Structure formats: structure tokens, C-alpha cells
């Protein structure tokens, strides 16, 4: 059971004060009964809750596709910089967190959720879920560089990186697909083959691709089809 006002806040109906005002004005019904006490306890997964005659459906897990801009840190909180969760203050769901991380100067696709099980599976090295990046480089990317990236390179750890996939787009840009998530991995891989990354954007994670309609800093909920496909990505290994 949960307090009615907390439930409505968790479902992004409004702030705690806004929700309490709605309840006190008699604009909230529980199983057809008008409720005016914010502290009323409800069964969030059983009771029917209506706010201004609109059904508020319970959802324990939520999944958002976010277009991360540059200059934002991938964290739940930070004392100095804006975080990705600062964009989700009005979003439905509680205990949200980013799945994996993108560097502060990297932009692109980021999954935001509160489903720890799915997040763990997507990030598990055993699952080898592919992440594809659009990369721009300081120097020309040669065939030899591509070959080395596809074989795995030494980035200063105990083992070489796992083999990557490449698709050269121009002399200084490519798509790079990796299945790991080591710290600054893409930048370290390109440095290992003799160049520097000047721009980096993640465009896909498993079957999930960045929605071209999303501007930087915008997000939307995953469709059922996208969510099912992501779950299938983690079930293949």
C-alpha cells in the first residue's frame, strides 16, 4: 500500500503540493469514490485512480529514450554540473537512473529507467549488447586503423578490447560498434590506432536507436515494441 498523494507524485501527476491541492478540491477518485485526504492509503496495482476523470495507471517500471546533449554528466546527482536526471524532474516514475554512461562531452542515445534487472542485463559483458557510435576524428582513418579496431586493440588494460565493427563514412568519420563499456573506451581505442576523437555520438544500443525526432535534451517513453526488442537483446546469450 502507498499514500495517495505519493502515488500521484510517482506517476508524475504533479508536485506534492499540486497533488494535495487536487485531492483537497475533490478532483481525485479511488474506485469511484471521491477522496479528499492526501494520506489515504491505496493499493497502487489494484485500485482504480482517476484525476479529473482521467485514469492514472500504475507502472512500477518506466523506460525513456533520452537524447543526451554535450556538457551534461551521466549521473543521478552532481555538485557542480547539470546531470541527465535534471531533465526528468517532471517525468513519470521514481528512482530513475541512466543505463551505463556517456562522457560529459559525448551526446546521443541514453536509456533512462528504474528497471535494475534490465539495466544489469544490458550492461553485462556476457550479453555483449552492441553499442554503435558516430565518430569524427582528427586524422584520416586508414584501412590499417580499421583492421586493428576490428581485431581488438591495446588500451592499457590486461586484455585487448573485444573486436569492434567499423563502417567508414568519410576520411575522418565512421560508425564504430563495440560490445563493451570500458571507461572512455571509444576515445582510447581511436588513440590506440593513432588518432583522436573530435566528436562522439551514440546512435544505438542493441536494437534501440536514437529517434531522429528527438532534439538534444528531449526524451520520450519507449514503445512496447522497442522494449520487447531490448529484452530480446539480453536473452540471446
The CATH level-2 architecture of the largest domain is identified as 2-Layer Sandwich
Helix and strand sequence: EHHEEEEEEEEHEHEEHEEEH
Number of helices: 6
Q: What is the C-level CATH assignment of the largest domain?
A: Alpha Beta
What number of domains?
3
**Strand segment tally:** 15
CATH topology assignment of the largest domain: Alpha-Beta Plaits
Helix and strand arrangement:
Elements: E1 2-3, H1 4-10, H2 16-24, E2 28-30, E3 33-34, E4 41-42, E5 49-51, E6 54-55, E7 63-68, E8 97-98, E9 107-113, H3 116-123, E10 131-137, H4 143-151, E11 165-170, E12 173-178, H5 185-192, E13 197-205, E14 208-209, E15 219-221, H6 224-233
Parallel strand pairs: 9-13
Antiparallel strand pairs: 1-4, 2-3, 2-5, 5-6, 7-9, 7-15, 8-9, 10-12, 10-13, 11-12, 13-14
Summarize the structure.
The protein has 237 residues and is of the alpha+beta class.
Question: What would you note in describing this structure?
Answer:
Helix 1 packs across helix 2 (16-24). The protein is built from 6 helices and 15 strands. It is 22% helix and 26% strand. The mean pLDDT is 94. By secondary structure, it is of the alpha+beta class. It has helices at residues 4-10, 16-24, 116-123, 143-151, 185-192, 224-233; strands at 2-3, 28-30, 33-34, 41-42, 49-51, 54-55, 63-68, 97-98, 107-113, 131-137, 165-170, 173-178, 197-205, 208-209, 219-221. A hairpin with a 2-residue loop joins strand 11 and strand 12. It has 3 domains: 2-55, Roll (Structural Genomics Hypothetical 15.5 Kd Protein In mrcA-pckA Intergenic Region, Chain A), CATH 3.10.290.10; 63-125 and 207-233, Alpha-Beta Plaits (2-Layer Sandwich), CATH 3.30.70; 131-205, Alpha-Beta Plaits, CATH 3.30.70.1560. The longest helix has 10 residues, at 224-233. The strands form 3 sheets. Strands 7, 8, 9, 10, 11, 12, 13, 14 and 15 form a 9-stranded mixed beta sheet that branches. It has a 4-stranded antiparallel beta sheet with strand order 3-2-5-6. Strands 1-4 form a two-stranded antiparallel sheet.
Amino acid at each position: 500500500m502507498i499514500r495517495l498523494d505519493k502515488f500521484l507524485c510517482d506517476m508524475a501527476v504533479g508536485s506534492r503540493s499540486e497533488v494535495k491541492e487536487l485531492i483537497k478540491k475533490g478532483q481525485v477518485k479511488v474506485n469511484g469514490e471521491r477522496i479528499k485526504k492526501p494520506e489515504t492509503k491505496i493499493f497502487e496495482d489494484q485500485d482504480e485512480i482517476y484525476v479529473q476523470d482521467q485514469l492514472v495507471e500504475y507502472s512500477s517500471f518506466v523506460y525513456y529514450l533520452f537524447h543526451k546533449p554535450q556538457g551534461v554528466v551521466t549521473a543521478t546527482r552532481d555538485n557542480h554540473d547539470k546531470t541527465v536526471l535534471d531533465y526528468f524532474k517532471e517525468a513519470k516514475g521514481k528512482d530513475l537512473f541512466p543505463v551505463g554512461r556517456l562522457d560529459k562531452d559525448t551526446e546521443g542515445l541514453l536509456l533512462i529507467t528504474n528497471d535494475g534487472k534490465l539495466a544489469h542485463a544490458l550492461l553485462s559483458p556476457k550479453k555483449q549488447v552492441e553499442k554503435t557510435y558516430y565518430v569524427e576524428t582528427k586524422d584520416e582513418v586508414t584501412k590499417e586503423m580499421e583492421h586493428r579496431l576490428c581485431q581488438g586493440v591495446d588500451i592499457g588494460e590486461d586484455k585487448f578490447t573485444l573486436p569492434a565493427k567499423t563502417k567508414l563514412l568519410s576520411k575522418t568519420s565512421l560508425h564504430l560498434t563495440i560490445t563493451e563499456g570500458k571507461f572512455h573506451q571509444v576515445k582510447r581505442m581511436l588513440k590506440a590506432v593513432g588518432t583522436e576523437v573530435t566528436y562522439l555520438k551514440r546512435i544505438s544500443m542493441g536494437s534501440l536507436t536514437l529517434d531522429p525526432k528527438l532534439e538534444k535534451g528531449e526524451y520520450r517513453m519507449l514503445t512496447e515494441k522497442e522494449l520487447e526488442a531490448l529484452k530480446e537483446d539480453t536473452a540471446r546469450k
